[in-house]
Amino acid sequence: MSTELQLTAAGTKAVLFELDRFEPTEDGRLEVRGRWSGVRGRRFVRPTLTTAGEHSKQRLLADLEHKPWLAEEGEEWVAAFPWDGGNGELAAASLAVAPDIEVELPAPGAGGGKHGPSASDPHRALRERELELVRLRRALERSEAALQAADSEHNETVAAAARERQAWKAEWAARRDSLAKQARRLEQQLAQALAERDAALAERDVALAERDAALAERDAALAERAPALAERAPVPAPPPMEAPVAVGPPPRRTETHWFARAMALAVLATALVALAIVLRLS
Description:
The radius of gyration is 65 Å and the shape is rod-shaped. The strands form two sheets. It has a four-stranded antiparallel β-sheet with strand order 1-2-3-6. The protein has a four-stranded antiparallel β-sheet with strand order 5-4-7-8, with no helix packed on it. It has a domain at 3-116: Sandwich (Immunoglobulin-like), CATH 2.60.40. The chain is built from two helices and eight strands. Helices cover 48% and strands 19% of the residues. The chain is an alpha+beta fold. β4 and β5 (57-61) form a beta hairpin. The longest helix has 109 residues, at 124-232.
Protein backbone atom coordinates (compact mmCIF):
# COMPACT_ATOMS: atom_id res chain seq x y z
CA MET A 1 0.00 0.00 0.00
CA SER A 2 1.53 3.31 -1.06
CA THR A 3 2.08 6.08 1.46
CA GLU A 4 2.40 9.75 0.61
CA LEU A 5 5.26 11.39 2.49
CA GLN A 6 5.97 15.03 3.22
CA LEU A 7 9.33 16.75 2.93
CA THR A 8 11.25 17.91 5.96
CA ALA A 9 13.19 20.62 4.06
CA ALA A 10 11.63 24.03 3.52
CA GLY A 11 10.79 25.52 0.13
CA THR A 12 10.00 22.21 -1.61
CA LYS A 13 6.27 21.86 -1.11
CA ALA A 14 5.74 20.98 -4.78
CA VAL A 15 7.90 17.84 -4.44
CA LEU A 16 6.03 14.69 -3.36
CA PHE A 17 7.21 11.13 -2.66
CA GLU A 18 4.77 8.23 -2.62
CA LEU A 19 6.30 5.30 -0.72
CA ASP A 20 5.50 1.82 -2.00
CA ARG A 21 7.97 -0.25 0.02
CA PHE A 22 10.52 0.23 2.80
CA GLU A 23 11.72 -3.01 4.33
CA PRO A 24 14.76 -5.28 4.72
CA THR A 25 15.67 -7.70 1.94
CA GLU A 26 17.06 -11.23 2.07
CA ASP A 27 20.52 -10.08 1.01
CA GLY A 28 20.90 -7.80 4.06
CA ARG A 29 19.82 -4.46 2.71
CA LEU A 30 17.13 -1.86 3.31
CA GLU A 31 15.23 -1.21 0.10
CA VAL A 32 13.18 1.90 -0.63
CA ARG A 33 10.68 1.89 -3.51
CA GLY A 34 8.35 4.68 -4.47
CA ARG A 35 7.41 7.41 -6.95
CA TRP A 36 8.46 11.04 -7.10
CA SER A 37 6.45 13.95 -8.45
CA GLY A 38 7.33 17.58 -8.89
CA VAL A 39 11.01 16.78 -9.54
CA ARG A 40 11.15 17.66 -13.25
CA GLY A 41 14.55 19.22 -13.96
CA ARG A 42 15.91 18.25 -10.52
CA ARG A 43 19.14 16.29 -10.18
CA PHE A 44 19.49 13.76 -7.38
CA VAL A 45 22.75 12.98 -5.59
CA ARG A 46 23.66 9.63 -4.04
CA PRO A 47 20.75 8.90 -1.68
CA THR A 48 21.44 8.90 2.05
CA LEU A 49 19.36 7.00 4.62
CA THR A 50 19.57 8.15 8.25
CA THR A 51 18.24 5.56 10.67
CA ALA A 52 17.48 5.95 14.38
CA GLY A 53 17.15 3.05 16.79
CA GLU A 54 16.74 2.71 20.54
CA HIS A 55 20.43 3.22 21.28
CA SER A 56 22.11 4.29 17.97
CA LYS A 57 21.82 6.39 14.86
CA GLN A 58 23.34 5.48 11.48
CA ARG A 59 23.88 7.24 8.18
CA LEU A 60 23.83 4.84 5.22
CA LEU A 61 24.81 5.50 1.58
CA ALA A 62 22.90 3.84 -1.22
CA ASP A 63 24.50 0.97 -3.11
CA LEU A 64 25.70 1.81 -6.65
CA GLU A 65 23.43 -0.87 -8.14
CA HIS A 66 20.71 1.67 -9.04
CA LYS A 67 23.00 4.57 -9.96
CA PRO A 68 22.37 7.31 -11.14
CA TRP A 69 18.98 7.21 -9.30
CA LEU A 70 17.22 9.41 -11.88
CA ALA A 71 13.73 10.36 -10.79
CA GLU A 72 11.08 10.61 -13.49
CA GLU A 73 7.58 11.86 -12.87
CA GLY A 74 5.33 9.05 -11.68
CA GLU A 75 7.86 6.29 -12.47
CA GLU A 76 9.10 3.72 -9.93
CA TRP A 77 12.26 4.78 -8.11
CA VAL A 78 14.50 2.34 -6.19
CA ALA A 79 17.41 2.73 -3.78
CA ALA A 80 19.02 0.03 -1.63
CA PHE A 81 21.17 0.57 1.47
CA PRO A 82 23.49 -1.89 3.25
CA TRP A 83 22.13 -2.78 6.70
CA ASP A 84 23.15 -5.35 9.28
CA GLY A 85 20.04 -5.03 11.42
CA GLY A 86 21.55 -2.51 13.86
CA ASN A 87 21.63 -2.85 17.61
CA GLY A 88 17.89 -2.99 18.00
CA GLU A 89 14.60 -2.28 16.40
CA LEU A 90 14.62 0.58 13.86
CA ALA A 91 12.31 3.29 15.08
CA ALA A 92 12.57 5.98 12.38
CA ALA A 93 14.43 6.85 9.17
CA SER A 94 14.79 9.75 6.81
CA LEU A 95 15.73 9.66 3.11
CA ALA A 96 17.76 12.48 1.55
CA VAL A 97 18.29 12.68 -2.24
CA ALA A 98 19.34 16.33 -2.54
CA PRO A 99 20.44 19.11 -0.16
CA ASP A 100 16.87 20.44 -0.05
CA ILE A 101 14.91 17.18 -0.53
CA GLU A 102 14.51 14.88 2.49
CA VAL A 103 11.52 12.78 3.56
CA GLU A 104 10.68 10.98 6.78
CA LEU A 105 10.09 7.24 6.35
CA PRO A 106 7.98 4.98 8.57
CA ALA A 107 9.44 2.00 10.38
CA PRO A 108 10.55 -0.76 7.96
CA GLY A 109 7.70 -3.08 7.11
CA ALA A 110 5.07 -0.74 8.50
CA GLY A 111 2.10 -0.21 6.25
CA GLY A 112 -1.34 1.05 6.34
CA GLY A 113 -1.64 4.52 7.70
CA LYS A 114 -0.75 7.77 6.11
CA HIS A 115 2.40 9.51 7.19
CA GLY A 116 2.89 13.19 6.70
CA PRO A 117 0.25 15.94 6.70
CA SER A 118 -2.90 15.27 8.70
CA ALA A 119 -6.29 14.86 7.08
CA SER A 120 -7.14 18.39 8.08
CA ASP A 121 -4.20 19.80 6.13
CA PRO A 122 -5.69 22.26 3.60
CA HIS A 123 -2.98 21.36 1.10
CA ARG A 124 -3.67 17.62 1.17
CA ALA A 125 -6.36 17.62 -1.52
CA LEU A 126 -4.27 19.94 -3.66
CA ARG A 127 -1.24 17.66 -3.38
CA GLU A 128 -3.30 14.61 -4.27
CA ARG A 129 -4.65 16.40 -7.31
CA GLU A 130 -1.15 17.49 -8.27
CA LEU A 131 0.05 13.90 -8.00
CA GLU A 132 -2.84 12.67 -10.13
CA LEU A 133 -2.15 15.45 -12.62
CA VAL A 134 1.48 14.37 -12.78
CA ARG A 135 0.40 10.80 -13.52
CA LEU A 136 -2.01 11.92 -16.19
CA ARG A 137 0.61 14.21 -17.72
CA ARG A 138 3.08 11.34 -17.74
CA ALA A 139 0.54 9.08 -19.47
CA LEU A 140 -0.18 11.84 -21.97
CA GLU A 141 3.52 12.25 -22.69
CA ARG A 142 3.85 8.53 -23.29
CA SER A 143 0.86 8.61 -25.62
CA GLU A 144 2.28 11.57 -27.49
CA ALA A 145 5.64 9.84 -27.79
CA ALA A 146 3.95 6.70 -29.13
CA LEU A 147 1.94 8.82 -31.57
CA GLN A 148 5.06 10.62 -32.74
CA ALA A 149 6.84 7.29 -33.20
CA ALA A 150 3.88 5.98 -35.21
CA ASP A 151 3.82 9.16 -37.32
CA SER A 152 7.55 8.90 -37.90
CA GLU A 153 7.24 5.26 -38.93
CA HIS A 154 4.33 6.10 -41.22
CA ASN A 155 6.26 8.95 -42.82
CA GLU A 156 9.27 6.72 -43.30
CA THR A 157 7.08 4.05 -44.89
CA VAL A 158 5.53 6.60 -47.24
CA ALA A 159 8.95 8.00 -48.11
CA ALA A 160 10.32 4.50 -48.76
CA ALA A 161 7.33 3.70 -50.99
CA ALA A 162 7.85 6.96 -52.89
CA ARG A 163 11.56 6.19 -53.36
CA GLU A 164 10.76 2.68 -54.57
CA ARG A 165 8.14 4.02 -56.98
CA GLN A 166 10.60 6.59 -58.31
CA ALA A 167 13.22 3.88 -58.78
CA TRP A 168 10.73 1.71 -60.71
CA LYS A 169 9.76 4.66 -62.90
CA ALA A 170 13.40 5.40 -63.67
CA GLU A 171 14.09 1.73 -64.47
CA TRP A 172 11.09 1.42 -66.80
CA ALA A 173 11.99 4.72 -68.49
CA ALA A 174 15.51 3.42 -69.10
CA ARG A 175 14.11 0.15 -70.52
CA ARG A 176 11.69 2.05 -72.74
CA ASP A 177 14.50 4.26 -74.09
CA SER A 178 16.69 1.21 -74.71
CA LEU A 179 13.90 -0.57 -76.62
CA ALA A 180 13.20 2.58 -78.63
CA LYS A 181 16.90 2.83 -79.60
CA GLN A 182 16.94 -0.84 -80.62
CA ALA A 183 13.78 -0.34 -82.73
CA ARG A 184 15.31 2.69 -84.49
CA ARG A 185 18.54 0.77 -85.14
CA LEU A 186 16.60 -2.19 -86.59
CA GLU A 187 14.56 0.15 -88.79
CA GLN A 188 17.76 1.71 -90.13
CA GLN A 189 19.28 -1.73 -90.77
CA LEU A 190 16.09 -2.83 -92.57
CA ALA A 191 16.02 0.29 -94.71
CA GLN A 192 19.71 -0.18 -95.60
CA ALA A 193 19.11 -3.85 -96.46
CA LEU A 194 16.16 -2.93 -98.66
CA ALA A 195 18.23 -0.27 -100.43
CA GLU A 196 21.06 -2.72 -101.02
CA ARG A 197 18.56 -5.28 -102.33
CA ASP A 198 17.05 -2.75 -104.73
CA ALA A 199 20.52 -1.73 -105.92
CA ALA A 200 21.46 -5.38 -106.49
CA LEU A 201 18.23 -5.97 -108.44
CA ALA A 202 18.93 -2.89 -110.56
CA GLU A 203 22.48 -4.10 -111.29
CA ARG A 204 21.10 -7.52 -112.18
CA ASP A 205 18.57 -5.98 -114.57
CA VAL A 206 21.33 -3.95 -116.22
CA ALA A 207 23.53 -7.05 -116.56
CA LEU A 208 20.64 -9.03 -118.04
CA ALA A 209 19.92 -6.22 -120.51
CA GLU A 210 23.58 -6.07 -121.52
CA ARG A 211 23.64 -9.85 -121.91
CA ASP A 212 20.50 -9.79 -124.08
CA ALA A 213 22.02 -7.02 -126.19
CA ALA A 214 25.27 -8.99 -126.62
CA LEU A 215 23.31 -12.08 -127.59
CA ALA A 216 21.32 -10.06 -130.10
CA GLU A 217 24.53 -8.61 -131.57
CA ARG A 218 26.01 -12.08 -131.78
CA ASP A 219 22.94 -13.43 -133.53
CA ALA A 220 22.99 -10.52 -135.98
CA ALA A 221 26.68 -11.00 -136.68
CA LEU A 222 26.19 -14.69 -137.27
CA ALA A 223 23.24 -13.96 -139.53
CA GLU A 224 25.30 -11.48 -141.54
CA ARG A 225 28.21 -13.89 -141.93
CA ALA A 226 26.14 -16.91 -142.86
CA PRO A 227 25.79 -16.00 -146.61
CA ALA A 228 29.47 -15.17 -146.92
CA LEU A 229 30.45 -18.39 -145.28
CA ALA A 230 28.11 -20.28 -147.53
CA GLU A 231 29.60 -18.64 -150.64
CA ARG A 232 33.13 -19.35 -149.49
CA ALA A 233 32.48 -23.01 -148.70
CA PRO A 234 34.58 -25.28 -151.16
CA VAL A 235 32.76 -27.06 -153.96
CA PRO A 236 33.61 -30.74 -154.09
CA ALA A 237 35.69 -31.50 -157.26
CA PRO A 238 34.45 -34.09 -159.68
CA PRO A 239 36.13 -37.44 -159.47
CA PRO A 240 39.30 -37.58 -161.57
CA MET A 241 39.31 -39.39 -164.81
CA GLU A 242 41.04 -42.64 -164.97
CA ALA A 243 44.62 -42.17 -166.05
CA PRO A 244 47.49 -44.39 -166.29
CA VAL A 245 48.99 -45.12 -162.97
CA ALA A 246 52.33 -43.54 -162.66
CA VAL A 247 54.86 -44.47 -160.14
CA GLY A 248 56.36 -41.48 -158.35
CA PRO A 249 55.83 -39.05 -155.33
CA PRO A 250 52.23 -38.28 -154.13
CA PRO A 251 50.55 -35.24 -155.74
CA ARG A 252 50.55 -31.94 -153.80
CA ARG A 253 47.33 -30.53 -152.21
CA THR A 254 45.84 -27.75 -154.14
CA GLU A 255 45.53 -24.20 -152.73
CA THR A 256 41.68 -24.58 -152.56
CA HIS A 257 41.86 -27.14 -149.76
CA TRP A 258 44.19 -24.90 -147.74
CA PHE A 259 41.84 -21.88 -148.06
CA ALA A 260 38.81 -23.89 -146.92
CA ARG A 261 40.59 -25.03 -143.80
CA ALA A 262 41.57 -21.42 -142.98
CA MET A 263 37.97 -20.23 -143.28
CA ALA A 264 36.72 -23.02 -141.05
CA LEU A 265 39.24 -22.09 -138.41
CA ALA A 266 38.15 -18.43 -138.57
CA VAL A 267 34.48 -19.33 -138.11
CA LEU A 268 35.36 -21.56 -135.13
CA ALA A 269 37.36 -18.76 -133.49
CA THR A 270 34.49 -16.30 -133.96
CA ALA A 271 32.06 -18.74 -132.34
CA LEU A 272 34.39 -19.24 -129.38
CA VAL A 273 34.73 -15.45 -128.81
CA ALA A 274 30.94 -15.00 -128.90
CA LEU A 275 30.47 -17.88 -126.46
CA ALA A 276 33.00 -16.31 -124.08
CA ILE A 277 31.14 -12.99 -124.18
CA VAL A 278 27.84 -14.70 -123.38
CA LEU A 279 29.31 -16.60 -120.43
CA ARG A 280 30.85 -13.45 -118.96
CA LEU A 281 27.53 -11.54 -119.20
CA SER A 282 25.33 -14.33 -117.76
